[in-house]
Amino acid sequence: MNKQLETQRRRMRFLRFSAFALVLALAISLAASPTRHAGAASTGFANPAAQAADTGGDGDGFETNPQDAFSDSNGEAEDRDSGTNTTVSCSNTGKDRHRFYNYGFSVPAGSTINGIQVRVDARLDAAGGYICAELSSDGGLTWTASKQTAGLTSSFTTNDIGGAADTWGRTWSAADFSNANFRLRLTSVANNTSARFRLDWVSAQVHYSEPGSDVTGPSTSNVAAVDAGGGSVTLTATVNDSVSGGANIAGAEYFVDSIGVSGAGAPMAAADGAFSSPVENVTATVAVGGLPVGDHTLYVHGRDAAGNWGASGLVVVAVVSGGTSAVQATVQLVAGTLSVSAQPVNFPTVALNGSDQTVEATPAAWRAIDGRGTGAGWNVTITSTDFTAAQGSISAPNHKIRLLPANITTVSGGAPPVSLVSSYQALSSITPLKLLSAGTGTGMGTFDLTPEFSLLVPASTAPGQYTASIVVSVNTGP
Protein backbone atom coordinates (compact mmCIF):
# COMPACT_ATOMS: atom_id res chain seq x y z
CA MET A 1 0.00 0.00 0.00
CA ASN A 2 1.31 3.44 -0.87
CA LYS A 3 1.83 5.07 2.55
CA GLN A 4 1.73 8.64 1.26
CA LEU A 5 -1.51 8.09 -0.64
CA GLU A 6 -3.07 6.40 2.37
CA THR A 7 -2.11 9.37 4.55
CA GLN A 8 -3.58 11.86 2.10
CA ARG A 9 -6.90 10.05 2.21
CA ARG A 10 -7.31 10.64 5.90
CA ARG A 11 -9.66 13.51 6.73
CA MET A 12 -8.59 14.13 10.31
CA ARG A 13 -6.77 17.47 10.78
CA PHE A 14 -3.73 17.39 13.03
CA LEU A 15 -1.14 19.88 14.19
CA ARG A 16 2.25 18.73 15.42
CA PHE A 17 4.81 20.93 17.12
CA SER A 18 8.46 20.47 17.91
CA ALA A 19 11.05 22.92 19.19
CA PHE A 20 14.74 22.16 18.87
CA ALA A 21 17.20 23.68 21.33
CA LEU A 22 20.35 25.48 20.22
CA VAL A 23 22.79 25.78 23.12
CA LEU A 24 25.01 28.87 23.33
CA ALA A 25 27.59 28.60 26.11
CA LEU A 26 31.15 29.52 26.92
CA ALA A 27 32.10 25.97 25.95
CA ILE A 28 30.12 23.78 23.55
CA SER A 29 30.68 20.02 23.28
CA LEU A 30 29.53 18.41 20.04
CA ALA A 31 29.06 14.64 19.86
CA ALA A 32 30.29 13.07 16.63
CA SER A 33 28.25 10.56 14.67
CA PRO A 34 29.01 6.89 15.44
CA THR A 35 32.09 5.73 13.56
CA ARG A 36 32.75 2.27 12.24
CA HIS A 37 36.05 1.25 13.80
CA ALA A 38 38.55 -1.27 12.55
CA GLY A 39 37.33 -4.64 13.80
CA ALA A 40 33.81 -3.37 14.55
CA ALA A 41 30.96 -5.07 12.73
CA SER A 42 27.18 -5.21 12.53
CA THR A 43 24.61 -7.87 11.74
CA GLY A 44 22.70 -5.38 9.63
CA PHE A 45 18.98 -4.90 10.19
CA ALA A 46 17.35 -8.32 10.56
CA ASN A 47 13.70 -9.33 10.34
CA PRO A 48 11.80 -11.28 12.98
CA ALA A 49 10.22 -14.59 12.02
CA ALA A 50 7.97 -15.10 15.03
CA GLN A 51 5.63 -13.01 17.17
CA ALA A 52 3.17 -13.31 20.02
CA ALA A 53 0.83 -11.00 21.90
CA ASP A 54 2.02 -10.25 25.43
CA THR A 55 0.10 -9.56 28.62
CA GLY A 56 -1.16 -6.03 29.22
CA GLY A 57 -3.99 -3.86 27.96
CA ASP A 58 -6.53 -5.79 25.91
CA GLY A 59 -4.17 -8.77 25.91
CA ASP A 60 -4.13 -9.01 22.12
CA GLY A 61 -1.18 -6.78 21.15
CA PHE A 62 -1.08 -6.12 17.39
CA GLU A 63 -4.09 -8.32 16.81
CA THR A 64 -4.50 -7.74 13.07
CA ASN A 65 -1.87 -9.18 10.69
CA PRO A 66 1.05 -9.03 13.17
CA GLN A 67 3.23 -10.96 10.69
CA ASP A 68 3.08 -7.98 8.32
CA ALA A 69 5.61 -6.24 10.60
CA PHE A 70 8.23 -8.88 9.72
CA SER A 71 9.49 -6.93 6.70
CA ASP A 72 9.43 -3.45 5.19
CA SER A 73 6.47 -2.34 3.02
CA ASN A 74 4.68 -5.69 3.28
CA GLY A 75 1.35 -4.55 4.68
CA GLU A 76 0.69 -3.28 8.19
CA ALA A 77 0.18 -4.91 11.55
CA GLU A 78 -2.55 -3.12 13.50
CA ASP A 79 -3.27 -2.61 17.18
CA ARG A 80 -6.89 -1.46 17.24
CA ASP A 81 -8.57 0.07 20.30
CA SER A 82 -5.21 0.02 22.03
CA GLY A 83 -5.14 -0.39 25.79
CA THR A 84 -7.66 0.00 28.58
CA ASN A 85 -6.84 3.50 29.85
CA THR A 86 -5.53 6.88 28.68
CA THR A 87 -2.41 6.97 30.86
CA VAL A 88 0.70 7.81 28.81
CA SER A 89 3.46 5.61 30.24
CA CYS A 90 5.67 2.81 28.92
CA SER A 91 5.30 0.85 32.17
CA ASN A 92 1.51 1.07 32.53
CA THR A 93 -0.06 -2.41 32.55
CA GLY A 94 -3.14 -1.12 30.76
CA LYS A 95 -1.23 -0.83 27.47
CA ASP A 96 -1.13 -3.45 24.69
CA ARG A 97 2.21 -5.25 24.28
CA HIS A 98 3.59 -7.58 21.62
CA ARG A 99 6.77 -9.68 21.29
CA PHE A 100 8.85 -10.19 18.16
CA TYR A 101 11.66 -12.75 17.99
CA ASN A 102 13.63 -15.31 15.93
CA TYR A 103 15.73 -12.63 14.27
CA GLY A 104 18.38 -15.16 13.22
CA PHE A 105 21.31 -12.99 14.34
CA SER A 106 24.80 -14.33 13.66
CA VAL A 107 27.21 -12.86 16.22
CA PRO A 108 30.59 -14.61 16.54
CA ALA A 109 31.22 -16.23 19.91
CA GLY A 110 33.46 -14.12 22.13
CA SER A 111 32.49 -10.85 20.44
CA THR A 112 32.18 -7.66 22.45
CA ILE A 113 28.67 -6.25 22.10
CA ASN A 114 28.84 -2.49 21.49
CA GLY A 115 25.18 -1.63 20.92
CA ILE A 116 21.73 -2.72 19.76
CA GLN A 117 19.68 -0.63 17.35
CA VAL A 118 15.93 -1.12 16.86
CA ARG A 119 13.97 0.29 13.93
CA VAL A 120 10.23 0.88 14.23
CA ASP A 121 8.26 2.09 11.19
CA ALA A 122 4.85 3.12 12.51
CA ARG A 123 2.01 5.61 12.58
CA LEU A 124 -0.91 6.39 14.91
CA ASP A 125 -4.51 7.36 14.16
CA ALA A 126 -6.80 9.61 16.23
CA ALA A 127 -4.60 10.02 19.31
CA GLY A 128 -1.32 11.26 20.71
CA GLY A 129 1.25 8.68 21.71
CA TYR A 130 4.30 6.63 20.88
CA ILE A 131 5.71 3.09 20.93
CA CYS A 132 8.05 1.79 23.64
CA ALA A 133 10.66 -0.93 23.11
CA GLU A 134 12.32 -3.32 25.55
CA LEU A 135 14.89 -6.07 24.99
CA SER A 136 15.32 -9.46 26.67
CA SER A 137 18.37 -11.76 26.68
CA ASP A 138 16.68 -14.69 28.43
CA GLY A 139 13.60 -15.49 26.39
CA GLY A 140 11.46 -12.81 28.02
CA LEU A 141 12.08 -13.59 31.71
CA THR A 142 13.67 -10.17 32.29
CA TRP A 143 13.65 -6.97 30.25
CA THR A 144 15.79 -3.88 29.84
CA ALA A 145 14.50 -0.45 30.74
CA SER A 146 12.25 0.81 27.95
CA LYS A 147 13.13 3.32 25.25
CA GLN A 148 10.52 5.11 23.16
CA THR A 149 9.96 6.54 19.72
CA ALA A 150 9.19 10.17 19.14
CA GLY A 151 5.52 11.11 19.15
CA LEU A 152 3.72 9.34 16.30
CA THR A 153 1.37 10.97 13.80
CA SER A 154 -0.96 9.74 11.06
CA SER A 155 2.02 9.69 8.67
CA PHE A 156 4.45 6.79 8.70
CA THR A 157 7.81 7.62 10.30
CA THR A 158 10.99 5.61 10.76
CA ASN A 159 12.16 5.61 14.38
CA ASP A 160 15.64 4.44 15.40
CA ILE A 161 15.87 3.41 19.05
CA GLY A 162 19.18 2.60 20.74
CA GLY A 163 22.30 2.72 18.59
CA ALA A 164 25.76 1.49 17.74
CA ALA A 165 27.11 2.34 21.22
CA ASP A 166 23.93 1.82 23.27
CA THR A 167 23.79 -1.46 25.21
CA TRP A 168 20.44 -0.60 26.85
CA GLY A 169 21.98 -0.71 30.33
CA ARG A 170 23.15 -4.33 30.08
CA THR A 171 26.32 -6.27 29.38
CA TRP A 172 25.59 -8.70 26.53
CA SER A 173 27.27 -11.78 25.10
CA ALA A 174 26.94 -13.32 21.63
CA ALA A 175 24.77 -16.13 23.04
CA ASP A 176 22.15 -13.61 24.19
CA PHE A 177 21.16 -13.04 20.54
CA SER A 178 20.21 -16.64 19.75
CA ASN A 179 16.62 -17.26 18.69
CA ALA A 180 16.03 -18.98 22.04
CA ASN A 181 17.14 -15.96 24.07
CA PHE A 182 16.58 -12.65 22.27
CA ARG A 183 13.18 -10.98 22.42
CA LEU A 184 11.99 -7.50 21.40
CA ARG A 185 8.79 -6.24 23.02
CA LEU A 186 6.76 -3.25 21.80
CA THR A 187 4.21 -1.38 23.91
CA SER A 188 1.55 0.85 22.33
CA VAL A 189 1.09 4.00 24.42
CA ALA A 190 -1.71 6.43 23.56
CA ASN A 191 -3.95 8.95 25.30
CA ASN A 192 -7.06 7.47 23.67
CA THR A 193 -8.34 3.90 24.09
CA SER A 194 -9.74 4.05 20.54
CA ALA A 195 -6.30 4.69 19.08
CA ARG A 196 -5.13 2.56 16.18
CA PHE A 197 -1.40 1.85 15.88
CA ARG A 198 -0.15 0.71 12.47
CA LEU A 199 3.22 -1.06 12.37
CA ASP A 200 4.97 -1.60 9.05
CA TRP A 201 8.32 -2.99 10.22
CA VAL A 202 10.08 -3.85 13.46
CA SER A 203 13.72 -4.73 12.76
CA ALA A 204 16.91 -4.79 14.80
CA GLN A 205 20.66 -5.02 14.38
CA VAL A 206 23.56 -5.80 16.70
CA HIS A 207 26.84 -3.85 16.66
CA TYR A 208 29.85 -5.78 17.92
CA SER A 209 33.63 -6.14 17.83
CA GLU A 210 34.82 -9.54 16.72
CA PRO A 211 37.06 -11.50 19.10
CA GLY A 212 40.71 -10.68 18.51
CA SER A 213 39.94 -7.76 16.20
CA ASP A 214 40.32 -5.08 18.88
CA VAL A 215 44.06 -4.79 19.55
CA THR A 216 44.23 -1.17 20.73
CA GLY A 217 43.72 -0.11 24.32
CA PRO A 218 41.57 2.81 25.45
CA SER A 219 42.85 6.36 25.77
CA THR A 220 43.04 8.17 29.11
CA SER A 221 42.31 11.88 29.54
CA ASN A 222 41.14 14.46 32.07
CA VAL A 223 43.45 13.07 34.77
CA ALA A 224 43.01 15.20 37.90
CA ALA A 225 43.58 15.06 41.65
CA VAL A 226 41.98 17.05 44.45
CA ASP A 227 42.83 17.19 48.13
CA ALA A 228 40.66 14.70 50.04
CA GLY A 229 42.06 15.55 53.47
CA GLY A 230 43.94 13.29 55.83
CA GLY A 231 46.97 13.08 53.60
CA SER A 232 44.99 11.73 50.60
CA VAL A 233 43.90 12.94 47.18
CA THR A 234 40.95 11.89 45.06
CA LEU A 235 42.27 10.79 41.66
CA THR A 236 39.91 10.87 38.66
CA ALA A 237 40.21 10.32 34.90
CA THR A 238 38.22 9.46 31.77
CA VAL A 239 39.00 6.18 29.97
CA ASN A 240 37.69 5.99 26.40
CA ASP A 241 37.67 3.07 23.92
CA SER A 242 35.03 4.49 21.57
CA VAL A 243 37.62 5.41 18.92
CA SER A 244 40.03 2.52 19.46
CA GLY A 245 37.86 -0.58 19.12
CA GLY A 246 34.52 0.32 20.65
CA ALA A 247 34.69 -2.27 23.44
CA ASN A 248 33.38 -1.61 26.94
CA ILE A 249 35.90 -0.49 29.55
CA ALA A 250 36.70 -3.39 31.89
CA GLY A 251 39.00 -1.75 34.45
CA ALA A 252 41.55 0.94 35.29
CA GLU A 253 44.57 1.32 37.57
CA TYR A 254 47.11 3.88 38.75
CA PHE A 255 50.82 3.94 39.54
CA VAL A 256 52.80 6.39 41.68
CA ASP A 257 55.99 7.92 40.20
CA SER A 258 56.74 5.09 37.75
CA ILE A 259 54.65 2.90 35.45
CA GLY A 260 54.75 -0.77 36.37
CA VAL A 261 53.53 -3.91 34.62
CA SER A 262 50.00 -3.57 33.27
CA GLY A 263 47.58 -5.18 35.68
CA ALA A 264 49.87 -4.73 38.68
CA GLY A 265 48.82 -1.18 39.57
CA ALA A 266 46.37 -0.05 42.23
CA PRO A 267 42.78 -0.55 40.99
CA MET A 268 40.37 2.29 40.27
CA ALA A 269 36.57 2.12 40.36
CA ALA A 270 33.98 3.21 37.81
CA ALA A 271 32.49 6.50 38.99
CA ASP A 272 28.95 5.28 38.19
CA GLY A 273 29.49 1.98 40.01
CA ALA A 274 29.94 -0.37 37.04
CA PHE A 275 32.20 -0.81 34.02
CA SER A 276 29.51 -1.12 31.34
CA SER A 277 30.25 1.22 28.42
CA PRO A 278 33.08 2.23 26.04
CA VAL A 279 33.59 5.51 27.98
CA GLU A 280 33.96 5.46 31.76
CA ASN A 281 34.93 8.02 34.38
CA VAL A 282 37.16 6.32 36.98
CA THR A 283 38.17 7.28 40.51
CA ALA A 284 40.38 6.23 43.42
CA THR A 285 41.52 7.64 46.75
CA VAL A 286 45.34 7.81 46.85
CA ALA A 287 47.27 8.15 50.11
CA VAL A 288 50.18 10.52 49.63
CA GLY A 289 50.93 11.11 53.32
CA GLY A 290 53.97 8.85 53.37
CA LEU A 291 55.60 10.28 50.24
CA PRO A 292 58.70 12.49 50.48
CA VAL A 293 58.32 16.24 50.09
CA GLY A 294 58.37 17.23 46.41
CA ASP A 295 56.52 16.54 43.15
CA HIS A 296 55.05 13.07 42.57
CA THR A 297 53.43 11.81 39.38
CA LEU A 298 50.25 9.71 39.37
CA TYR A 299 49.83 7.65 36.18
CA VAL A 300 46.41 6.29 35.10
CA HIS A 301 45.45 3.92 32.30
CA GLY A 302 42.56 1.58 31.48
CA ARG A 303 41.78 -1.84 30.01
CA ASP A 304 39.01 -2.67 27.52
CA ALA A 305 36.86 -5.79 27.46
CA ALA A 306 39.12 -7.26 24.77
CA GLY A 307 41.99 -7.26 27.30
CA ASN A 308 43.96 -4.33 25.86
CA TRP A 309 45.64 -1.85 28.21
CA GLY A 310 45.92 1.69 26.86
CA ALA A 311 48.48 4.45 27.21
CA SER A 312 48.70 6.36 30.50
CA GLY A 313 47.67 9.87 31.39
CA LEU A 314 49.18 11.66 34.37
CA VAL A 315 48.84 14.37 36.96
CA VAL A 316 51.57 15.81 39.19
CA VAL A 317 50.90 16.17 42.91
CA ALA A 318 53.18 18.41 45.02
CA VAL A 319 53.71 17.20 48.58
CA VAL A 320 54.93 20.28 50.47
CA SER A 321 55.44 18.92 54.01
CA GLY A 322 56.58 15.55 55.25
CA GLY A 323 55.78 13.40 58.26
CA THR A 324 53.36 10.56 58.54
CA SER A 325 51.04 12.41 60.94
CA ALA A 326 50.81 15.78 59.15
CA VAL A 327 51.23 15.56 55.40
CA GLN A 328 49.86 18.19 53.06
CA ALA A 329 49.16 17.56 49.39
CA THR A 330 48.65 20.29 46.79
CA VAL A 331 47.50 20.02 43.20
CA GLN A 332 47.44 22.37 40.24
CA LEU A 333 43.81 23.11 39.34
CA VAL A 334 42.77 24.15 35.85
CA ALA A 335 39.58 26.18 35.59
CA GLY A 336 36.62 24.34 34.10
CA THR A 337 33.90 25.82 31.95
CA LEU A 338 30.54 27.48 32.36
CA SER A 339 28.00 25.68 30.19
CA VAL A 340 24.37 24.74 29.73
CA SER A 341 22.99 21.90 27.65
CA ALA A 342 19.35 21.90 26.55
CA GLN A 343 17.15 19.02 25.37
CA PRO A 344 14.49 19.12 22.60
CA VAL A 345 10.96 20.28 23.42
CA ASN A 346 8.32 18.12 21.71
CA PHE A 347 4.68 19.17 22.01
CA PRO A 348 2.00 16.50 21.51
CA THR A 349 -0.16 16.37 18.40
CA VAL A 350 -3.13 18.75 18.50
CA ALA A 351 -6.46 17.90 16.87
CA LEU A 352 -7.99 21.19 15.73
CA ASN A 353 -11.56 21.66 17.01
CA GLY A 354 -12.45 25.27 16.23
CA SER A 355 -11.38 26.64 19.62
CA ASP A 356 -8.15 28.02 21.02
CA GLN A 357 -6.17 25.24 22.68
CA THR A 358 -3.20 25.17 25.06
CA VAL A 359 -0.77 22.26 24.98
CA GLU A 360 2.09 21.57 27.35
CA ALA A 361 5.43 19.79 27.06
CA THR A 362 8.21 18.83 29.46
CA PRO A 363 11.62 18.00 27.97
CA ALA A 364 14.26 15.76 29.48
CA ALA A 365 16.33 17.50 32.14
CA TRP A 366 18.66 20.27 31.00
CA ARG A 367 22.07 20.54 32.68
CA ALA A 368 24.04 23.60 33.80
CA ILE A 369 27.67 23.34 34.91
CA ASP A 370 29.88 25.96 36.57
CA GLY A 371 33.37 24.52 36.88
CA ARG A 372 35.24 27.83 36.83
CA GLY A 373 35.95 27.84 40.55
CA THR A 374 35.50 31.63 40.78
CA GLY A 375 32.09 31.84 42.45
CA ALA A 376 31.35 34.87 40.28
CA GLY A 377 27.75 33.80 39.61
CA TRP A 378 25.94 33.21 36.33
CA ASN A 379 22.55 33.25 34.67
CA VAL A 380 20.66 31.46 31.88
CA THR A 381 18.49 33.25 29.31
CA ILE A 382 16.16 31.92 26.65
CA THR A 383 14.50 33.21 23.46
CA SER A 384 12.14 31.56 20.99
CA THR A 385 11.32 32.29 17.38
CA ASP A 386 7.77 32.13 16.08
CA PHE A 387 6.46 28.65 15.29
CA THR A 388 6.34 28.54 11.49
CA ALA A 389 5.14 26.22 8.75
CA ALA A 390 4.29 26.64 5.09
CA GLN A 391 0.69 27.21 6.15
CA GLY A 392 1.33 30.07 8.58
CA SER A 393 2.80 30.85 11.98
CA ILE A 394 2.13 31.07 15.72
CA SER A 395 3.75 34.06 17.40
CA ALA A 396 6.51 33.61 19.96
CA PRO A 397 4.56 35.18 22.91
CA ASN A 398 2.12 32.24 22.65
CA HIS A 399 5.08 30.09 23.71
CA LYS A 400 5.65 30.20 27.47
CA ILE A 401 8.04 28.65 29.99
CA ARG A 402 8.21 28.10 33.72
CA LEU A 403 10.77 26.45 36.00
CA LEU A 404 9.47 25.31 39.36
CA PRO A 405 12.05 25.47 42.19
CA ALA A 406 11.38 21.78 42.86
CA ASN A 407 12.59 21.04 39.32
CA ILE A 408 16.14 22.26 40.06
CA THR A 409 18.28 19.36 41.26
CA THR A 410 21.85 19.48 42.57
CA VAL A 411 23.91 16.74 40.93
CA SER A 412 27.08 17.88 42.65
CA GLY A 413 28.29 21.11 44.18
CA GLY A 414 27.04 23.70 46.63
CA ALA A 415 24.10 26.10 46.79
CA PRO A 416 21.95 25.76 43.63
CA PRO A 417 20.83 28.52 41.27
CA VAL A 418 17.38 30.08 41.71
CA SER A 419 14.48 30.04 39.23
CA LEU A 420 13.25 33.44 38.06
CA VAL A 421 10.18 32.03 36.27
CA SER A 422 8.24 30.00 38.82
CA SER A 423 5.05 30.78 36.87
CA TYR A 424 4.56 30.71 33.10
CA GLN A 425 6.25 33.62 31.29
CA ALA A 426 5.93 34.46 27.59
CA LEU A 427 8.99 34.00 25.39
CA SER A 428 10.24 36.56 22.90
CA SER A 429 12.23 36.31 19.70
CA ILE A 430 13.99 39.61 20.53
CA THR A 431 14.35 40.09 24.29
CA PRO A 432 15.99 37.21 26.20
CA LEU A 433 14.03 36.00 29.23
CA LYS A 434 16.22 35.34 32.29
CA LEU A 435 15.32 31.83 33.39
CA LEU A 436 17.83 31.04 36.12
CA SER A 437 20.27 32.98 38.31
CA ALA A 438 23.18 31.96 40.53
CA GLY A 439 24.35 34.70 42.88
CA THR A 440 27.94 35.33 43.89
CA GLY A 441 29.28 32.30 45.72
CA THR A 442 26.44 30.01 44.56
CA GLY A 443 25.77 27.79 41.55
CA MET A 444 29.20 26.17 41.61
CA GLY A 445 28.87 22.56 40.45
CA THR A 446 26.48 20.59 38.25
CA PHE A 447 22.73 21.11 38.30
CA ASP A 448 19.81 19.52 36.42
CA LEU A 449 16.79 21.67 35.62
CA THR A 450 13.51 20.57 34.07
CA PRO A 451 11.53 23.49 32.60
CA GLU A 452 7.92 23.21 31.47
CA PHE A 453 6.55 24.75 28.27
CA SER A 454 3.07 25.69 27.11
CA LEU A 455 1.82 26.81 23.71
CA LEU A 456 -1.45 28.56 22.90
CA VAL A 457 -2.72 27.33 19.52
CA PRO A 458 -5.25 29.82 18.07
CA ALA A 459 -8.40 28.31 16.59
CA SER A 460 -7.62 29.96 13.25
CA THR A 461 -4.29 28.16 12.83
CA ALA A 462 -4.07 26.04 9.67
CA PRO A 463 -3.03 22.38 10.05
CA GLY A 464 0.61 21.50 9.46
CA GLN A 465 3.89 20.83 11.25
CA TYR A 466 5.15 23.97 12.99
CA THR A 467 8.70 24.43 14.23
CA ALA A 468 10.40 27.02 16.42
CA SER A 469 14.03 27.49 17.41
CA ILE A 470 14.93 28.00 21.06
CA VAL A 471 18.20 29.71 21.96
CA VAL A 472 19.45 28.96 25.47
CA SER A 473 22.45 30.99 26.66
CA VAL A 474 24.56 30.91 29.81
CA ASN A 475 26.07 34.23 30.85
CA THR A 476 28.55 35.37 33.51
CA GLY A 477 27.21 37.24 36.52
CA PRO A 478 23.96 36.71 38.47
CATH topology of the largest domain: Jelly Rolls
The end-to-end distance, rounded to whole angstroms, is: 58 Å
Tell me, what's the shape?
A: flat
Summarize the main sheet: 8 strands, antiparallel
In helices, the fraction of residues equals: under 10%
Q: Can you tell me the CATH architecture of the largest domain?
A: Sandwich
The low-confidence parts are 1-38, 323-328
Fourth-level CATH superfamily of the largest domain: Galactose-binding domain-like
- Contiguous helical run count: 1
Rg (CA only): 26 Å
Tell me the domain tally: 3
Q: Decide which structural class fits the backbone.
A: mainly beta
Query: Spatial order of the strands in the main sheet?
Result: 12-13-16-15-14-17-18-19
What is the strand and helix layout of this fold?
Elements: H1 3-9, E1 14-24, E2 40-42, E3 50-54, E4 77-79, E5 97-101, E6 112-125, E7 129-136, E8 147-148, E9 157-162, E10 183-190, E11 196-209, E12 219-229, E13 232-240, E14 249-256, E15 266-270, E16 279-287, E17 294-304, E18 313-321, E19 328-331, E20 338-341, E21 345-346, E22 350-351, E23 357-361, E24 366-370, E25 378-384, E26 387-389, E27 392-394, E28 399-402, E29 408-413, E30 418-419, E31 425-426, E32 433-438, E33 445-449, E34 452-457, E35 464-476
Parallel strand pairs: 1-35
Antiparallel strand pairs: 1-21, 1-22, 2-11, 3-5, 4-11, 5-10, 6-9, 6-11, 7-8, 7-10, 12-13, 13-16, 14-15, 14-17, 15-16, 17-18, 18-19, 20-24, 23-34, 24-33, 25-32, 25-35, 26-27, 28-31, 28-34, 29-33, 30-32
